[in-house]
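ingest -> validate -> predict -> emit
validate: passed (alphabet ok, no gaps, 133 aa)
predict: started
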Amino acid sequence: MSEENVNLVRDMYDAFAKGNVPGVLGSLDPHIQWYEAENFIYADNNPYVGPQAVLEGVFMRIVTDFDNFAVTPHEVLDAGDKVVALGTYSGTHKKTGKAVRAQMAHVWSIENGKAVKFQQYTDTKQFAEAVTS
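emit:
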């Protein structure tokens, strides 16, 4: 099951990179609990519960706020019923023109072939500075 969990998470990152948001959302449990890092620019409504909340509260805001936003996982690690992804975020804030390149860690909890929980860790200060004129 662990290899399947790793493949599920890799497939979500691939889908996100291709702009296939429905492909990402389809891998989320209907009751997923999605946590942005504390003090992150999109953590104001933590936890986001359900794919629609993730779409509206996170993904749509990213598209609105950033040009060329990318999540690049460098490692995807098997941790049993959890999968840990280590990588980088990059993009340019549309209003300020400030570029971001920040390390990230994501911890995914997987049950029955769906992501049931997501926890983000990243450099929140870098994002806060990017959105400030």
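The chain has one domain: 1-131.
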